[in-house]
Design goal:
Number of strands: 3
Radius of gyration: 15 Å
Length: 137
């Protein structure tokens, strides 16, 4: 089976865990908040035990060696910031090339708003450049 060549992860969900520093800091943040994430997981998983599966929670995988290089983009006002950054650290620890960037002062979903949020335009430019470099363009 073919494996990914590159990982572009924009505020990724990498762990089924609602008790992280960024979940605690941003439990009521908008547009994404803790009750919304809990609702999503209830409709995504067959049972809470499925959340331990590394395909759902790659942060829980015992070994990340050999995964594709990655760009990880996180936002300060996002319940998933901690897990995205922890995943980037785990990838680095496994010898995977990782570029990780936290965008200060913005919320989850900022990436899709380049017309109104300048940092979204910056993040998209970085992501595009990283993808072009990964694919030799």
């Amino acid at each position: 089976m073919a494996q990914p060549v590159y990982q572009l992860l924009v505020y990724p969900i990498t762990n089924y865990d609602f008790d992280t520093p960024s979940y605690n800091e941003n439990a009521e943040a908008v547009p994404l908040y803790e009750p919304g994430m809990m609702w999503s997981f209830r409709h995504y998983l067959n049972s809470p035990q499925d959340g331990a599966d590394p395909r759902v929670s790659p942060l829980r995988a015992p070994d990340l060696t050999g995964l594709a290089p990655a760009t990880v983009i996180t936002a300060t006002v996002d319940p998933m910031r901690y897990e995205g950054e922890a995943y980037a650290q785990r990838l680095r620890g496994a010898g995977v090339a990782v570029k990780s960037m936290r965008y200060e002062g913005v919320m989850h979903e900022f990436f899709s708003m380049p017309l109104v949020i300048a940092k979204a335009k910056q993040a998209q430019a970085m992501a595009g450049a990283d993808l072009c470099a990964a694919f030799g363009n």
